[in-house]
Amino acid sequence: MPRLSIVIPCLGGAAEFDDTLVSVLQNRPARCEVLVVHAQYYDDPYGLKDEVQFIRVSGRPSMGQLLNTGLEAARGEIVHVLGCRLTAVEGWAETALQLFEDDAVAAVTPLILDAVHGQITAAGVNHSVAGTRKIVGRGIELKNSRRVQRLQPAGPTLEAGFYRREVLEALGGWQEALGDAADLDLARALAALDLKTALAADCTLHERSPAPRLGGFSHGRALERLFWRAGRPHGLAIVLHTLAVLLDFALRIPKGDALTTLIGRLFGLCHAGTSVDRAALLETARAQLEGGEPGTLSLAEAREAQSQELVARRRAA
Fold first, then answer.
1. Do 57 and 201 belong to one domain?
2. Domain span at residue 247?
3. Half-sphere exposure of residue 130, counting CA atoms within 13 Å on the CB side?
4. Assigned domain for 14 exists
5. CA dihedral defined by 251, 252, 256, 257, rounded to 10 degrees?
6. 26 in helix, strand or coil?
7. Is 297 a domain residue?
8. Highest mean pLDDT range out of 93-107, 118-132, 232-246?
9. Which CATH number do you get for residue 45?
10. What pLDDT digit, counting tens, does each position of 25-44 carry?
11. What stretch of H or E contains 258?
């Protein structure tokens, strides 16, 4: 049984994940399995099927769907998500795995580096009272160890993180309806369960290309759903959130996606009121984790069971 499951999700073709996969195979730790979850056809020209599990998701899947598919196939105690924009280096996972010796640690955030300039481009995600999703550590020099050690991410980014598999399964994986904001939602869920996210400053991943700029309808909808899903906001939070939305709109005007992002936010308002469902999900996950018994259902079956329980709770209310 592997201890570590490395999941490489890829929405594009093989050219996008080749460098990432090669870096993992060259530097992989002991007792690990490698899973590539992809959306396009791949014929395995290098004959890697004995070393790598290739899982194709048909249709036009989201990143959340790819991640949940990888989670369902994973067998390791720890699941490591590694986006196909990144490459691994020798010994990159060792520090992260050591941090899981603390039973309260449910997630570990690595550092994503611009290796050319020696700067951090991401050290996890965090949020503000206004509901803004923020990338932690961007622009900090890696050699500035004091600033690096003070970083406090709420959780890993969607494309790079380590997680306890049992915790992910108890929460039903990543919330696909939240799109690229699913990482912050998961971080909040871990905090609500009194579980820790640790920063592994010695665990570094290198960028092959800059992170894509997020925007447009789906991004705006995801951010708005995230804000309302967190719970019933108080008056100050709503005022600050409104100001943040207006500022974001103004900043996006020169970039051409201000209107589509705002329309997405308006559609995301339909998610308001689902905090009750989230509370019930957290209660169910807490009960499962505190029970100390490993789940016997597949992730898909667990998610279906959670859905049925949430429906029952709504009817009872």
1. yes
2. 217-271
3. 13
4. yes
5. -170
6. helix
7. no
8. 93-107
9. 3.90.550.10
10. 999 999 999 999 999 999 88
11. helix 258-268
